[in-house]
Amino acid sequence: MNLPYTIILIPCAVPLALALWLAYARWESPAGIVDLPPPVRRGQRTFVAAERIDIRSMIGEVADMLKPLARARATRITLAVSPDRTVWAGRIDLAEALRELVATAIYESPGGQVLVSVLPLGSEMHIAVTDDGRGADQRLRETMARGAEQLIALQGGRIAVEARAQGTTVTVRMPDRVDSHSLGPAREGAQVAEENKHAALAPATA
Questions:
Q1: CA separation (Å) from 147 to 41, 74, 75, 101?
Q2: Alpha-helical regions (H) of 25-124
Q3: Least CB-packed of 65, 150, 185, 186 within 10 Å?
Q4: pTM of the shown model
Q5: Phi-psi bin for 62: left (phi > 0), alpha (psi -120 to 50), beta?
């Protein structure tokens, strides 16, 4: 057995494998590769670069990714989103939050239906995920939405949960436009760059 060669190759192979995984990592489903980001590791991010997002397209991608789960649960997913609906948010966090909410709705409504709708109300865009699962518990569903709520909070948005005897609606309320006051730790990428530029040009003070 060539033990010295084995010892040398193992440390070399680990970084190489990690680099390849980072370069090519993506979500795969039985329907094929889906261009959605991997789950967010909460607590490790401080800034979110916001952008104008076609919400209909994003919700469609989330629904396509969750089709295998929906088939396994015999649950039908229905989308009610106009083609001109957009929202200003961080793409990674919003996609992950919607994925969590729709997946939970599918799990909670076997043999039923999940409706995802989008409606502008005032200065907010409301994204509602409604299922017809029976006997929903308000506190339990609020707990199940906690992960998505943290992601939405990074965007300056909030979540409302309404559990009923026949179904639950979780509504994501996103501001039409984010700014430094509404985002908290999250910041619009262009705004951060602009602030950095002005800071670099500002004269030094004693």
A1: 11, 25, 23, 9
A2: 55-65, 67-72, 91-108
A3: 185
A4: 0.66
A5: alpha
Are residues 13 and 44 in contact, defined by beta-carbon separation less than 8 angstroms? Answer: no
Question: What domains, with CATH codes, occur in the chain?
Answer: 35-201 (3.30.565.10)
**Residue 93 CB neighbours (<10 A):** 24
Q: Which residue carries 């039908």 as its tokens?
A: 76
Rounded CA separation 108/102 (Å): 10
Cα dist from 99 to 78, 104, 190, 198, whole Å: 15, 9, 26, 38
180-201, pLDDT tens digit by residue?
444 444 444 444 444 444 444 4
Radius of gyration of the chain (CA): 21
Between the CA of residue 158 and those of 13, 81, 146, 150, 172, what are the distances in Å?
44, 20, 11, 9, 6
- CB-CB contact of 129 with 170 (8 Å): yes
| pLDDT tens track for 151-162 | 999 888 999 999
* Number of Cβ within a 10 Å radius of residue 197: 10
- What span, in angstroms and rounded, lies between the C-alpha atoms of 179 and 153? 13
